[in-house]
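stage 2 :: seqdesign
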């Protein structure tokens, strides 16, 4: 499942579904949670149920409400047929297993939002236990500050404050420890495409493999950031070829620089993203 860009769309706005699917996003997230008011949850579920009857080449993910919301059975009934489930307010593998138990053995891959409550931070290294149920891990910087009474998660220049830099890093390493995709959180300034490009580029540089979007105008920039460019791909092929030509060698020179096993792993990871 290729997940460079994942575009949110409110599930109670079915007139937006086709535009979202045509945006170029690898996945669209039909959101039953935060973007839908209490009074429109039922309407949103019906729209999701209807949308999932139609075929599309875009990955369709449904963000359900939290497993302890009281709406789990209704959300699951609406989401059957989805390619993946986004799981908010996850507190660790136990939350994933609770969803699987409620859904059944045919539960599709799950993408937990793994940093929205304080207790969740202490389980970010445990998702390897359920990695066969996951399509990735992602994080958010909005619910957590509200949960702990913080004024904000960001500095005046838009960068994260120290607690949320730590959370982002732990999520990144937790995803890779579980051997699943690490998905960067949203960039909320829709009109700031230059800022988005810089943010997405940092995410790709740091080891994230995709990013969530909140508007179709963000998708192309995100896809570009998380698609290896031609020079990177060519170098990765060269590294793999060099080691294939000398399988008995642990380290060798390529273009005047020493490369060894970590460079080979990195090259293979780049090529796996194509």
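stage 2 :: out
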């Amino acid at each position: 499942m290729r997940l460079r860009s994942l575009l949110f769309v409110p599930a109670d706005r079915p007139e937006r579904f086709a535009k979202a699917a045509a945006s170029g996003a690898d996945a669209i997230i039909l959101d039953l949670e935060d973007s839908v008011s209490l009074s429109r949850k039922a309407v949103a579920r019906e729209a999701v149920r209807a949308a999932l009857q139609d075929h599309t080449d875009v990955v369709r993910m449904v963000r359900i409400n939290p497993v302890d919301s009281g709406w789990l059975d209704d959300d699951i009934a609406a989401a059957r047929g989805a390619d993946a489930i986004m799981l908010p307010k996850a507190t660790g593998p136990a939350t994933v297993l609770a969803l699987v138990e409620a859904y059944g053995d045919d539960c599709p891959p799950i993408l937990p939002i793994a940093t929205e409550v304080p207790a969740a931070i202490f389980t970010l290294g445990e998702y390897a236990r359920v990695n066969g149920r996951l399509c990735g891990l992602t994080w958010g910087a909005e619910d957590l500050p509200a949960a702990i009474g913080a004024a904000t998660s960001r500095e005046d220049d838009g960068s994260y404050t120290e607690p949320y830099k730590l959370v982002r890093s732990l999520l990144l390493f937790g995803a890779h420890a579980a051997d699943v995709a690490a998905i960067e959180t949203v960039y909320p300034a829709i009109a700031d495409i230059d800022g988005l490009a810089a943010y997405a580029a940092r995410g790709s540089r740091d080891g994230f493999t995709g990013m969530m979007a909140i508007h179709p105008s963000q998708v192309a920039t995100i896809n570009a950031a998380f698609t290896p460019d031609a020079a990177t791909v060519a170098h990765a092929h060269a590294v793999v070829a060099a080691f294939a030509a000398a399988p008995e060698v642990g380290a060798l020179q390529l273009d005047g620089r020493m490369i060894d096993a970590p460079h080979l792993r990195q090259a293979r990871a780049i090529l796996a993203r194509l």
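stage 3 :: structure notes
- The chain is about 40% helix and 15% strand.
- Residues 162-177 form the longest helix (16 residues).
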